[in-house]
Amino acid sequence: MSRPAESAIHPASSLLPGFDHKGLRTAGADINYAVGGSGPPLLLLHGNPLTHVSWHKVAPSLAERFTVVIPDLRGYGDSSKPDGGEDHSAYSFRAMAQDNIELMRSLGFDRFQLAGHDRGARVAFRMALDAPQAVSRLAALDIVPTYELLSNVTLGWGLESYHWFFMAQKAPFPERLIGADLEYYIDYKLNKKGVGLSIFDPRAFAEYKRCTTHEQIHAVCEDYRATVTVDHQMDAADRAAGRRIECPVLVLWGSNSHVGRHLKPMESWSRWADDLRGHAIETGHYPAEQRPDLVLAAFENFFDPAG
What we know:
By secondary structure, this protein is an alpha/beta fold. It contains 14 helices and eight strands. It has helices at about 60, 95-105, 120-130, 145-150, 155-160, 165, 175-180, 180-190, 200-210, 215-240, 260, 265-270, 285-290, 290-300, and strands at about 20-25, 30-35, 40-45, 65-70, 110-115, 135-140, 250-255, 275-280. Strands 1-2-4-3-5-6-7-8 form an eight-stranded mixed sheet, sandwiched between helices.
């Protein structure tokens, strides 16, 4: 694997003024990340099919109170796309969580606060279970825990979230179909029901298109293959063992997202966390880009500026 350049000028640097773009080689991947601000550490994890720049509307404000670290997950953006292995475990949420624990330790942070959206929230969920000593607070945007989701699939959610089971099909079936027209795919994927593409800054949208390559599509498919196999098995084992998230948890979901329309977020999260709070916000599936004011207000009320 090639090592990302240290302090490189990133194509989307104008979206994150005051942030430095750097790279770290973890035990399993090369991770591209941005870091800015000062104060206690706060790690922000993006979703699919996005990159770290999806936080650009909230990260600079948060950096006034926190040291904000925003990586590209392995398989996404400018991070590397390692081979998934026969069981796809290189793209498990545990593997992605380990990348980010190593990243934070490299910056001198053994304990930190954490927020994730979409896939990033699932990585954050796994990190909070596997490394409770590292995660002091967790905020999850627009998901319910994976085990609850896959154990209670509804017709409405399935129709809106078709890609979960399509992208999990055996390679190279989904890769070839998506790869036939990558630009059409990313336009369709980001144009969520009732919201549209106007919520995205053109510079951020250009980044998502730049990073939608054949290599990334294969990595994302490996991510979803891992979800319905090894990730689901880990969660089932944790449920059977009665494991729970120990830190305070904030859950936010879009009232006009597939989560808000079809799922019961607080009920689902209550099976995994005791110190739990949350509410719907008036957004679709991309709250940090559609209504950054609501996300920022919730984060500032939840995260501890004293660490």
